[in-house]
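So, can you check these tokens?
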Amino acid sequence: MFPDMKLYEEILFLDGYFKGMWVVENVISWYEPLIKPYEVASHYFWSNFYINDINVEGRMHQGLVEELEKRKGFKISHINNIDKIKILRNCVEPETGLHIFNCAFKIKQTTLD
């Protein structure tokens, strides 16, 4: 299996031409990335802003589709002919997504409990 160069094409295009803030995510690869990413919560992120690492508690990589859907916050159980478990396990955790947003906009978000 060869690295997908489309990922790097996208990163280079954004870095060279896009004037706004951007971030590209990918799961950690088996090979050393050609462009150094930030490594955050078991994912790679390339961006034009600083992203620090965080410890995500409650990461869920095992379980039934319904459990993973609840953890991730969306449903795919109605979709056929896909590996639902693999897709849900590879998703960024909701807390990580919020962290990336906060890094981009330097906004401290609060939750209503």
About this structure: Residues 5-17 form the longest helix (13 residues). The chain has a mean pLDDT of 86. The helical segments are 5-17, 65-72, 84-90, 94-105.
